[in-house]
Design a protein that fits this description.
about 140 residues; mainly alpha; 4 helices
Protein backbone atom coordinates (compact mmCIF):
# COMPACT_ATOMS: atom_id res chain seq x y z
CA UNK A 1 0.00 0.00 0.00
CA UNK A 2 2.87 2.40 0.69
CA UNK A 3 4.35 2.08 -2.80
CA UNK A 4 1.29 3.35 -4.74
CA UNK A 5 0.87 6.18 -2.23
CA UNK A 6 4.53 7.15 -2.62
CA UNK A 7 4.20 7.03 -6.40
CA UNK A 8 1.06 9.18 -6.20
CA UNK A 9 2.80 11.80 -4.09
CA UNK A 10 5.77 11.66 -6.46
CA UNK A 11 3.55 12.14 -9.52
CA UNK A 12 1.85 15.22 -8.05
CA UNK A 13 5.17 16.62 -6.81
CA UNK A 14 6.78 16.05 -10.22
CA UNK A 15 3.91 17.86 -11.93
CA UNK A 16 4.11 20.74 -9.47
CA UNK A 17 7.89 21.07 -9.83
CA UNK A 18 7.56 20.98 -13.62
CA UNK A 19 5.27 24.02 -13.50
CA UNK A 20 7.40 25.91 -10.96
CA UNK A 21 10.80 25.23 -12.55
CA UNK A 22 9.65 26.00 -16.08
CA UNK A 23 7.79 29.16 -14.98
CA UNK A 24 10.61 30.59 -12.88
CA UNK A 25 13.23 29.54 -15.42
CA UNK A 26 11.38 31.36 -18.19
CA UNK A 27 10.88 34.38 -15.92
CA UNK A 28 14.60 34.50 -15.19
CA UNK A 29 15.51 34.17 -18.86
CA UNK A 30 13.18 37.02 -19.79
CA UNK A 31 14.64 39.17 -16.99
CA UNK A 32 18.19 38.45 -18.16
CA UNK A 33 17.24 39.30 -21.75
CA UNK A 34 15.72 42.58 -20.50
CA UNK A 35 12.29 41.67 -21.83
CA UNK A 36 11.02 41.98 -18.25
CA UNK A 37 12.04 44.76 -15.88
CA UNK A 38 14.44 43.91 -13.04
CA UNK A 39 13.05 41.64 -10.31
CA UNK A 40 13.08 44.58 -7.88
CA UNK A 41 10.57 46.52 -9.99
CA UNK A 42 6.91 45.84 -10.64
CA UNK A 43 5.75 44.70 -14.07
CA UNK A 44 2.87 46.95 -15.10
CA UNK A 45 2.85 46.40 -18.88
CA UNK A 46 -0.28 44.33 -19.61
CA UNK A 47 1.38 42.75 -22.67
CA UNK A 48 4.22 41.39 -20.53
CA UNK A 49 1.74 40.04 -17.99
CA UNK A 50 -0.21 38.39 -20.79
CA UNK A 51 3.05 36.81 -22.00
CA UNK A 52 3.75 35.46 -18.51
CA UNK A 53 0.20 34.14 -18.17
CA UNK A 54 0.45 32.48 -21.58
CA UNK A 55 3.50 30.39 -20.82
CA UNK A 56 2.23 29.59 -17.33
CA UNK A 57 -0.92 28.17 -18.91
CA UNK A 58 1.17 25.98 -21.22
CA UNK A 59 3.42 24.88 -18.34
CA UNK A 60 0.45 24.07 -16.10
CA UNK A 61 -1.04 21.89 -18.83
CA UNK A 62 2.35 20.20 -19.30
CA UNK A 63 2.84 19.66 -15.56
CA UNK A 64 -0.62 18.13 -15.25
CA UNK A 65 0.01 15.87 -18.23
CA UNK A 66 3.24 14.76 -16.58
CA UNK A 67 1.50 14.10 -13.24
CA UNK A 68 -1.17 12.02 -15.00
CA UNK A 69 1.48 10.09 -16.90
CA UNK A 70 3.37 9.24 -13.71
CA UNK A 71 0.28 8.41 -11.66
CA UNK A 72 0.14 4.74 -10.61
CA UNK A 73 -3.67 4.77 -11.02
CA UNK A 74 -6.56 7.25 -11.49
CA UNK A 75 -4.55 9.86 -13.42
CA UNK A 76 -7.36 12.43 -13.37
CA UNK A 77 -7.48 12.20 -9.57
CA UNK A 78 -3.83 13.21 -9.48
CA UNK A 79 -4.50 16.02 -11.94
CA UNK A 80 -7.30 17.39 -9.73
CA UNK A 81 -5.06 17.29 -6.65
CA UNK A 82 -2.43 19.24 -8.59
CA UNK A 83 -5.08 21.68 -9.83
CA UNK A 84 -6.35 22.38 -6.32
CA UNK A 85 -2.77 22.91 -5.12
CA UNK A 86 -2.35 25.43 -7.95
CA UNK A 87 -5.65 27.09 -7.07
CA UNK A 88 -4.58 27.38 -3.42
CA UNK A 89 -1.16 28.88 -4.19
CA UNK A 90 -2.60 31.10 -6.92
CA UNK A 91 -5.28 32.42 -4.57
CA UNK A 92 -2.75 33.06 -1.81
CA UNK A 93 -0.50 34.81 -4.33
CA UNK A 94 -3.35 37.04 -5.47
CA UNK A 95 -4.33 37.90 -1.90
CA UNK A 96 -0.76 38.89 -1.09
CA UNK A 97 0.29 40.62 -4.31
CA UNK A 98 -2.79 42.57 -5.47
CA UNK A 99 -2.50 45.12 -2.60
CA UNK A 100 1.22 45.47 -3.31
CA UNK A 101 0.51 46.98 -6.77
CA UNK A 102 3.30 45.00 -8.46
CA UNK A 103 1.36 44.96 -11.72
CA UNK A 104 -2.19 44.69 -13.00
CA UNK A 105 -4.53 43.04 -10.48
CA UNK A 106 -6.00 40.78 -13.16
CA UNK A 107 -2.72 38.86 -13.56
CA UNK A 108 -2.50 37.07 -10.16
CA UNK A 109 -6.27 36.56 -10.23
CA UNK A 110 -5.96 34.93 -13.67
CA UNK A 111 -3.19 32.67 -12.38
CA UNK A 112 -5.55 31.40 -9.68
CA UNK A 113 -8.55 31.07 -12.00
CA UNK A 114 -6.67 29.14 -14.69
CA UNK A 115 -5.27 26.50 -12.32
CA UNK A 116 -8.19 24.05 -12.47
CA UNK A 117 -9.04 24.36 -16.19
CA UNK A 118 -5.38 24.02 -17.19
CA UNK A 119 -4.90 21.02 -14.91
CA UNK A 120 -7.99 19.40 -16.40
CA UNK A 121 -6.67 20.12 -19.92
CA UNK A 122 -3.35 18.42 -19.12
CA UNK A 123 -5.14 15.37 -17.76
CA UNK A 124 -7.53 15.24 -20.70
CA UNK A 125 -4.59 15.50 -23.10
CA UNK A 126 -2.91 12.61 -21.32
CA UNK A 127 -6.07 10.50 -21.47
CA UNK A 128 -6.49 11.22 -25.16
CA UNK A 129 -2.91 10.37 -26.07
CA UNK A 130 -2.95 7.36 -23.75
CA UNK A 131 -6.11 6.04 -25.41
CA UNK A 132 -4.70 6.62 -28.89
CA UNK A 133 -1.51 4.79 -27.96
CA UNK A 134 -3.33 1.98 -26.13
CA UNK A 135 -2.18 3.15 -22.70
CA UNK A 136 -3.24 1.60 -19.42
CA UNK A 137 -4.84 4.75 -17.89
CA UNK A 138 -7.47 5.36 -20.57
Amino acid sequence: MTRPFTRSVGAVLAGFLTVVVLSLGTDELLHVLNVYPPWSEGMHDPALNLLALSYRIVYTIAGSYFAARLAPNRPMGHVWVLGFIGLFFGTMGAIVTVPMNLGPAWYPIAIALTALPCSWAGGALYQRTSTELGGQHA
